[in-house]
Design a protein that fits this description.
Two copies of one chain form a homodimer. Chain A has two helices and three strands; from the N terminus they run E-H-E-E-H. Chain A has a single domain, classed as 2-Layer Sandwich (TATA-Binding Protein). By secondary structure, chain A is α+β, with helices and mostly antiparallel strands. In chain A, strands 1-3-2 form a three-stranded antiparallel beta sheet, with helices on one face. In chain A, a hairpin with a 2-residue loop joins strand 2 and strand 3. Chains A and B meet through strand 1 and helix 2 of A and strand 1 and helix 2 of B. Chains A, B: This is KEOPS complex Pcc1-like subunit.
Chain lengths: ~90, ~90
């Protein structure tokens, strides 16, 4: 029987935005994605504190952690692109 | 001129192993990889505390954070595989 070496994996990501409103915009954009894609192998919390967006992920293994990290970071990248273009217009 | 929306990105990963010796083995295996692949856009610290391996990454953007995260998690996965097979043999 194969003994599981890695017991648990946790990751906390902090994303610093220029303003709290930017952080909140990204939070509101991403939150439905996170709650809409429940997974048995990971649990995720997302919150904003001032201009900092905090994403905490707990996973059973690195494979499921990587999958979640990649999805969330892709959503952050997309939101960030839109914010940058919006800032360009103002 | 495009105004950078995302100022800084930080990620802390904590990997819980069954024993401190397992965590140290993975630390010693991964450390040369991390110090051997310097990047201007990310800075990384790795340490073990008891049976917990801690990886802290600071990056300028989510793209470079994702690249680093993926590499380190791949190395952890590989080390973890070897530990599990080694545990199988003992």
């Amino acid at each position: 029987m194969r003994i599981k070496a890695l017991k648990q994996v946790e990751s906390r990501i902090e994303l610093e935005f220029p303003s709290s409103s930017d952080a909140e915009i990204v939070l509101r954009a991403i939150e439905p994605e996170i709650s809409g894609s429940p997974s048995e192998r990971t649990s995720t919390e997302i919150e904003s504190e001032g201009n900092i967006l905090k994403i905490s992920i707990t996973a059973q293994d690195t494979t499921s952690l990587r999958a979640s990290l990649n999805s969330y970071l892709r959503w952050v990248m997309l939101s960030n692109e839109i914010l940058e273009l919006k800032n360009l217009k103002n």
